[in-house]
Amino acid sequence: MKSRTLQHSNGPPKQPLETVYCICRRPDTGKWMIGCDGCDDWFHGECVSLQPTDEDLVDQYFCPGCQEKGFGTTTWKRKCRLPSCHNAALIAGDPPSKYCSPEHGIEFFKSKYPLADYCAGEISALAGAVADASGFRELGNDVPAPGSTNSRADIESLLRRDVEKLEPQKDAINRRKNRVGARSKFISMAKDRQKRVGDELRGEGDQTSKGSKEICGFDIRLAMDDEEFADWCESEEGQGVFSQGILNGREGLCTKRKCEKHKYWLRIAMEDIELEERLIGERSTALLSEENGLRQRQNIKSLMENQRLR
Ligand SMILES: [Zn+2]
Ligand SMILES: [Zn+2]
Ligand SMILES: [Zn+2]
Ligand SMILES: [Zn+2]
Hints:
The protein is mainly α. Helix content is 47%, strand content 5%. The chain has a three-stranded antiparallel sheet, with no helix packed on it. A two-stranded antiparallel ribbon has the order 4-5. This is PHD-type domain-containing protein. It comes from Dactylellina haptotyla (strain CBS 200.50) (Nematode-trapping fungus).
């Protein structure tokens, strides 16, 4: 696939303006064009309903005329899984990826499963007039006015409330951890079955097994999205599979020896697991340090109070 705009042409050398291209038989207007891999003519994106953002996604381009003559059909690369990104996924990369870059993998999971970012500023605001540890220290120096809202009990209850506010986020993280764990377990069961069924087929005298190439081994449940998979895990079938720790039978299994469709399924499935684990790890660490910070403030405040009451 080739493409160009007038300014930075990597196509044919600039030609007199009379030269006409495309289905419209008009000259190069300077707008983005795409080259046909069949007839080598150039086509205005607008005339063939393609946009410059398609550039990296078109694998091979065949113009309407060439498609009609059966010279070929336009093929597309797989797009990066992040909806806002128009780059091609590194599906044939090493390792293969559903994303154009590791950063977009992380961004995809952050946007898909937000775990309620915790805003540190909120805690400080809630602890009344006291913004940080040094604030607490200064507070200890003051003689509080009677009925002050900054009394020890008030501040402690505010801090306790903040710590409690972290609970739903901890729950969310634990839920994701469990889901990722289930996915991971399922992948290893699918791997086991790939080998087992491959051996079975060989035993059954499967003629196609010559050369002992592994079967594809992809399982349709690997294509489920997060919710569907969670539902399946809770179904009778899913619970049975997980309690036995084995994927029996061949239902949902791809037994092709040379499978283009599911190529790299294992590494791509593992990529998602790794990305999510990384993200969960980051969130857990952030939450933990938030909690520790809160408890530390509580301790400092208690110490201050004890000194003051002496
Ligand atoms: Zn045109
Ligand atoms: Zn053509
Ligand atoms: Zn991307
Ligand atoms: Zn397959």
